[in-house]
Amino acid sequence: MNRATSVWYFFGLLVVGAACSSAAGNDTSPPITPPVDAGIDVSAGGAAGAPGTGGSGGALISTDGSADSGWDPPFCANKDLTGDLDKDGYSVEQGDCNDCTPLMNPGAYDYPGDGIDEDCNGVDDDEPSSCDDGLAEDSKDAMDAARALGLCRTASAGATGKSKTWGVISAAYVFPDGSKGSQTPKTFQGCVGDFGEGQPPNPASYGLLSGFGNSLVPRQGSTLLALSSGIARSGVVANSPGGAFTCTRSDMPAGFPTPSNNCSNQPLDSETDAYDAVALEIVVRAPTNAKSFAFDFDFHTYEFPDWVCDQYNDYFVALVSPKRLGADATGNISFDTKGNPVSVNNAWLEACETGTYKGKSYPCSLGAGELTGTGFDGRGATGWLETHAPVQPGEQITIRFAIWDMGDETYDSTVLIDNFRWDIEEIPPSTLRPPK
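^ that's the sequence the OP posted. Answer follows.
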């Protein structure tokens, strides 16, 4: 939990605690305040464990990074075991260990380092992590891809009560339009790996990597996810990224193709075919104490600098449904400061050799170092970026990370995705350069 998050969390619980500790029977008090004879034992400090047991709820991390052991979450020993005092969807009988705050229940994320048992399992700060050790690079299990992102919990769609936790409900490799079977490929010559009409995405198009090139490593854990319109591996493999054919085809997502604001009079293909396409689609239930999520990505493209502002461009998008307030018209949440989806024409393309290409000046502020050994040597990349988007606590959402080639099947692009995480603060859809 970062410094800003700690402050928010402190005051959020403090406000709820004030409500729980206010005078009973006040008709104008917040709904969370117990009425007279409600069977509520309100404690000033106390446990974040079983109701009525006392003990310590643990320390928050203060804004200077040190432990603030002088404050505990407000605690209510709710004697109405089937009631839901804090209106978080969980009763004491269903495992709510602190019915005085909606930020603690079995569906919550146990934020590390705060000394609080948010998920009510009896152990502070034990959120599963490092679930991506030992994953096979060529695993076809899409749940392994979710683990590579850092999503270590699974959940059941029909779960209730204590068993209704946050987590990944399902994961699948699909096409950018959400379909599961390929349309007739544009070519059957020189195809790499499994392919064909009606087949799922080519397994060569995705990979779980321990690194990329000579310098790029996972942002968390030991593995990152790679999706590619060529071969999702580090270095030059089977003519990729110069131009491998994975021989799949689907429709583009609704709303594509779309021109870039960074180009004047950019030609667009009249067709809506997505070639050499692949997507990872995950269905996940958000924690009850999360108001946004984030992930890191780094987009590499062989189309730079030859095909800047042309019709032959690869896209990377992150489509979320239900659509997020503040997302673009397509539902995409990864875009530059001008609202352009990620492609060679994205304003974030800053890992490259400085120069003027197709009349456009590229200062390439990140230099070209990260490209070494990736197969994209001498080409271009965005460098690591982070995308944020809001979520309703406990909401079930679908996220589709997709990449495809527009116009033809040559000149490949690869996106690295990692470090999926939750935040207790609400952050609108945005993509930015993370601090070093």
